[in-house]
């Protein structure tokens, strides 16, 4: 079974998806982490400047997105991890710098095509909860259940700002609004696989819900649709 959860930045997708996967004993695939890894590796292994991330060299991408080098792992206790050449790089992937870099690199068609394969291979082996921007619309159009999760831009900007603050990065409310606004625009306006609400998705608005309440709501929908 495949459950997709798509939505904009800071809509709570990853936390909800991780929690749902644990409850259902499914595998969790965090696709944003793959885009983050590609951005990180282009910068750190291939010395790309941020503005070169829009059009990375195909040879660099083929060398980095290679199933013997770039490995995604998930288990309920260790959460999700990205390993490159045997080294766990996960802790470098959630900085505000990589937020921006991943958002840029994800507009590139070659990157998206190569990661499409990586995502589909994971689904062959497991019952899956997967989250991202295009997992219901492009990666797994045949998914059993599709959720689209969102919250108001103000709420999402504040969540993002608080997350950054916990990690020692201080942003004003206005800076956070501008950053989230830019990421929304880039996600929705890119030519390849833009963020859309899949036709057959259940829309969950969680501005006023916390994570357990959001998970409960998603479970309710799934029960009603008799998929679990
Ligand atoms: O979900 P996230 O914030 O970790 O994702 C990081 C970036 O990756 C985000 O800016 C958009 C991109 N992304 C994407 O284009 N498609 C996906 N399925 C997942 C993420």
Note the main attributes of this structure.
alpha/beta; 228 residues; Rossmann fold; 3-stranded antiparallel beta sheet; 48% helix; 2 domains; binds 2'-deoxycytidine-5'-monophosphate
Account of the 3D structure:
The protein is an alpha/beta fold and about 230 residues long. It has two domains: about 1-25 and about 125-228, 3-Layer(aba) Sandwich (Rossmann fold), CATH 3.40.50; about 30-125, P-loop containing nucleotide triphosphate hydrolases (Rossmann fold). The protein has helices at about 15-25, 30-45, 60-65, 95-105, 110-125, 135-140, 155-165, 175-190, 210-225, and strands spanning about 1-5, 25-30, 70-75, 80-85, 85-90, 130, 145-150, 200-205. The chain has a five-stranded parallel β-sheet, sandwiched between helices. A three-stranded antiparallel β-sheet has the order 3-4-5, covered by helices on one side. Helix 1 crosses helix 9 (about 210-225). The longest helix is centred in the middle third of the chain and has 17 residues, at about 110-125. The structure holds 2'-deoxycytidine-5'-monophosphate.
């Amino acid at each position: 079974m495949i459950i997709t959860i798509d939505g904009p930045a800071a809509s709570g997708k990853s936390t909800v998806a991780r929690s749902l996967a644990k409850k259902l004993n499914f595998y969790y695939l965090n696709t944003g982490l793959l885009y983050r890894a590609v951005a990180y590796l282009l910068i750190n292994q291939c010395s790309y400047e941020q503005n070169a991330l829009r059009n990375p060299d195909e040879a660099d991408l083929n060398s980095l997105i290679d199933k013997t080098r770039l490995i995604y792992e998930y288990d309920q206790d260790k959460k999700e991890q990205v390993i490159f050449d045997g080294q766990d790089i996960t802790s470098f992937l959630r900085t505000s710098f990589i937020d921006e870099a991943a958002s840029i690199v994800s507009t590139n068609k070659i990157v998206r095509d190569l990661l499409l394969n990586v995502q589909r291979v994971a689904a062959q082996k497991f019952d899956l909860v997967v989250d991202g921007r295009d997992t219901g619309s492009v990666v797994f159009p045949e998914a059993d259940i599709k959720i689209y999760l969102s919250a108001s831009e103000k709420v999402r900007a504040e969540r993002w700002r608080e997350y950054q603050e916990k990690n020692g990065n201080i942003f004003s409310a206005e800076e956070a609004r501008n950053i989230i606004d830019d990421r929304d625009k880039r996600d929705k306006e890119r030519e390849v696989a833009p963020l859309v609400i899949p036709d057959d998705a259940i829309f969950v608005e969680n501005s006023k819900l916390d994570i357990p309440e959001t998970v409960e709501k998603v479970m309710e929908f799934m029960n009603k649709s008799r998929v679990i």
